[in-house]
Design goal:
Blueprint (H helix, E strand, L loop, with lengths): L2 E5 L3 E7 L2 E2 L3 E3 L1 H9 L5 E9 L4 H9 L2 E2 L3 E4 L6 E6 L6 E7 L19 E4 L4 H9 L7 E5 L2 H6 L1 H8 L4 E5 H8 L4 H9 L5 E5 L5 E5 L2 E5 L13 H16 L4 H18 L6 H4 L3 H15 L8
Parallel strand pairs: 1-5, 1-10, 2-8, 5-6, 5-7, 10-11, 11-12, 12-13
Antiparallel strand pairs: 2-3, 2-4, 8-9, 13-14, 14-15
Helix pairs in contact: 1-8, 3-5, 6-7, 8-9, 9-11
Length: about 300
């Protein structure tokens, strides 16, 4: 069985959308990635940091889902990373109300010995130097390294970001970030420029409009499932990433054809994440629900047409 190493925030969020609002709840990229990947029955572990205010019950919940938390450092006198935001009516745009780095400001990741030989590594959205530090601690080059990032790092640490991008196999970013990183409006041209930076595969997330997978001259598109209710899109991108790499780690196949299936697996899980606030839906997701929705995805995209010979 393959091992998956995840680096990312384990945090508190406070969220406001047109459908309601929350006080501090469980959030963070590492949390969403771990919960999503746990649906594939693989060994996974999270590298992160929390403060003494972080409830032990959250760590237990992750452990119960076979997500190893030994490398989540607990700074007892510190406070956990906190983000607060308000989503606008279309849920595609949001305003950040508060960002408190707290213990994350001095985070020095330490990969546990058990996961230094992990075949799959998911570098969740964090400072590029933290992402690089995790790769430096691996005993050998992993079979697949996936990196997620955002415009904040492009604005403030571009050189460090470009250095870590050179070292990964897959990058996952949204369409706005792809355009910012490359200066290209066309996503096809943007993907081509990102190849030249190092990754072999580029995944461009388009929110409710699905996701694109690029590899050399090949392109694959996966739609997002039309949903009756969307409550909170906060962790959707990280849930997608967790499903994507979780599927690849389970199948141990990193071909382009299998990455297509991984994109669908990630999109499938992300469709659940948005149905409740925070991690609530992902914490209580049943295997039969995942399979049933996968059938919906297949029906949404499959058709027969007679082609002229």
């Amino acid at each position: 069985m393959s091992k998956l190493l995840i680096v990312g925030t384990v945090a508190f969020d406070a969220i406001k959308t047109p459908f309601g609002e929350t006080d501090k709840i469980l959030g963070g990229a590492g949390t969403y990635i771990g919960l999503s990947a746990s649906n594939f029955g693989i060994d996974s572990g999270i590298v992160s940091v929390v403060g003494g205010d972080f409830p032990e019950e959250y760590l237990k919940m992750l452990n119960d889902k076979n997500v190893n938390t030994d490398a989540i450092e607990i700074v007892k006198e510190g406070k956990t990373f906190f983000w607060s935001g308000e989503y606008h009516n279309d849920l595609n745009s949001r305003t950040t109300l508060a960002t408190e780095l707290n213990v994350l400001a001095d985070f020095n990741p330490k990969v546990s010995d058990e996961f230094k030989n992990a075949e799959f590594v998911m570098l969740g959205n964090l400072h590029p130097l933290v992402q690089s530090s995790v790769l430096d601690q691996m005993e050998e080059r992993p079979k697949l390294v996936v990196l997620d990032t955002m415009n904040f790092w492009m604005d403030n640490t571009l050189e460090d970001l470009l250095n870590v991008i050179k070292r990964v196999d897959v990058i996952t970013i949204n369409d706005e970030e792809a355009r910012q990183l490359t200066g290209e409006y066309s996503l096809v041209k943007a993907a081509q420029k990102i190849y030249e930076m190092g990754p072999k595969y580029v995944v461009i997330k388009k929110g409710e409009h699905g996701a694109l997978l690029f590899h050399e001259k090949d392109v694959f598109f996966a739609p997002a499932l039309p949903l009756e209710e969307v409550f909170d899109p906060t962790g959707a991108g990280d849930t997608f990433a967790g499903g994507f790499i979780g599927y690849l780690a389970k199948t141990e196949d990193i071909s382009f054809e299998n990455m297509k299936r991984a994109v669908i697996a990630g999109s499938n899980l992300a469709s659940f994440c948005v149905e409740k606030f925070g991690t609530e839906r992902m914490e209580n997701l049943a295997a039969d629900e995942v399979q049933n929705r996968l059938v919906q995805f297949k029906e949404l995209t499959q058709f027969e047409i007679e082609l002229n010979k």
